[in-house]
């Protein structure tokens, strides 16, 4: 997607911003403001998964082979994941904290599913992406892209049944193969297939319904989990989580798509969210590092006369600024070089 589908970038910007806000306690805790779990927005990844389901379905509509698909996915994800993972390892070494095992590091660099967390914690969501990509790749190898929808329906149905009837101990060791998150990828796939058949009254009303629904769903899920939403959904509660967030995330994404249909040329107010959407992958990977570096510094220099709450917008802005700079001067040029295309900094999207 080059210079098109700005609606997708708006969705990515929102999802990444939600994730950053969910982790902002990593900074504020250093200066005495305990904000762990202050927002129920560990659910930002749910929106990411729905968007990914939509995008990969879009990609498969084009003439593309399995090798080319895998190559583009690998070049898009792995080099930057490796960079930030090694930066994180260096920070662990400097701070005297335990270093990861070789196996943990290797699996983390390749974004392969693990039973525990990858070295760079936020990389756990990429493990679910890899499984989704693997399904798409198998269908490309078999030249049966037409089976994408029924196959994902089948995988999602098996996953739901597993979490309703199998013991949690078994599911915790399935390497995400039976993850309920498959439902959210399926939601994005279904949304793409249904896009031309949807009747939208107005994108503004749809957005309002979507954002209110998403926030309400997040609060409800947090309530049922007792205050902390785990990264991995298990059991009936996990099924409830993915279904309610798949629906509300789909409504949100629908509103962005409808806005683009009404305004094919991106509105002026969209420049910043579009830029953040382009930089969303770097923002997702880098914000834990930015927070880990700035928290201790703020603990030393932050004036006692200034409310600790000011660190919330400050830390958020710092993470966004770093991601924008990273995308402009590193990620976009490197990606263009790796993919053998001419850099187009202003319009190139992170697809």
Cα(first) to Cα(last) distance is 6 Å
| Alpha-carbon Rg, integer | 20 Å
Query: Could you tell me the strand content as a percent range?
Result: under 5%
Number of helices: 14
Shape type: globular
Order of helices and strands: HHHHHHHHHHHHHH
Question: Helix/strand/pairing class, anyone?
Answer: mainly alpha
* Tally of DSSP β-strands: 0
Q: Assign a percent range to the helix content.
A: 55-70%
Average pLDDT metric: 90
* Biggest sheet statistics: none
- The low-pLDDT segments are 345-351
Explain what you see.
- The chain has 351 residues and is mainly alpha-helical.
- It has a domain at 1-39 and 269-351.
- 67% of the residues lie in helices and 0% in strands.
- The protein is built from 14 helices and no strands.
- It has helices at residues 6-22, 25-28, 44-59, 66-94, 102-109, 124-141, 148-165, 168-171, 182-194, 203-225, 235-262, 271-278, 280-301, 311-338.
- Helix 1 (6-22) packs antiparallel against helix 3 (44-59) and helix 3 (44-59) crosses helix 9.
- The chain is globular.
- The N and C termini lie close together (6 Å).
- The relative contact order is 0.17.
């Amino acid at each position: 997607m080059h210079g098109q589908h700005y609606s997708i970038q708006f969705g990515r910007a929102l999802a990444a911003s939600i994730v950053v806000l969910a982790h902002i306690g990593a900074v504020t805790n250093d200066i005495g403001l305990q904000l762990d779990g202050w927002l129920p927005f560990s659910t930002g990844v749910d929106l990411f998964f729905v968007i990914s389901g939509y995008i990969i379905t879009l990609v498969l509509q084009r003439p593309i082979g399995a090798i080319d698909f895998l190559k583009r996915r690998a070049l898009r994800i792995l080099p930057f994941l490796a960079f930030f993972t090694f930066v994180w390892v260096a920070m662990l070494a400097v701070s005297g904290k335990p270093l990861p095992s070789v196996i943990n590091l290797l699996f983390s660099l390749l974004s392969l599913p693990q039973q525990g967390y990858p070295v760079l914690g936020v990389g756990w969501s990429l493990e679910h992406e890899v499984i989704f990509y693997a399904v798409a790749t198998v269908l490309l190898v078999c030249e049966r892209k037409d089976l994408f929808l029924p196959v994902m329906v089948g995988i999602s149905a098996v996953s739901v049944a597993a979490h309703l009837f199998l013991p949690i101990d078994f599911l915790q060791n399935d390497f995400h193969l039976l993850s309920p998150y498959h439902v959210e990828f399926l939601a994005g796939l279904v949304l793409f297939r249904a896009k031309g058949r949807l009747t939208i009254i107005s994108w503004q009303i749809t957005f309002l319904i979507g954002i209110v629904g998403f926030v309400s769903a997040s609060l409800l899920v947090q309530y049922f989990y007792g205050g902390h939403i785990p990264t991995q959904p298990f059991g009936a509660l996990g099924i409830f989580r993915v279904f309610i967030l798949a629906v509300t995330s789909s409504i949100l994404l629908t509103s962005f798509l409808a806005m683009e249909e009404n305004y094919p040329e991106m509105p002026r107010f969209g420049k910043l969210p579009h830029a953040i959407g382009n930089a969303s992958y770097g923002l997702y990977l880098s914000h834990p590092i930015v927070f880990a570096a700035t928290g201790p510094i703020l603990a030393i220099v932050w004036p006692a006369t200034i409310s600790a709450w000011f660190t919330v917008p400050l830390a958020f802005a710092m993470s966004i600024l770093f991601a924008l700079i990273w995308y402009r001067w590193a990620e976009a040029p490197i990606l263009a070089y790796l993919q053998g295309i001419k850099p187009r900094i202003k319009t190139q999207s992170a697809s």
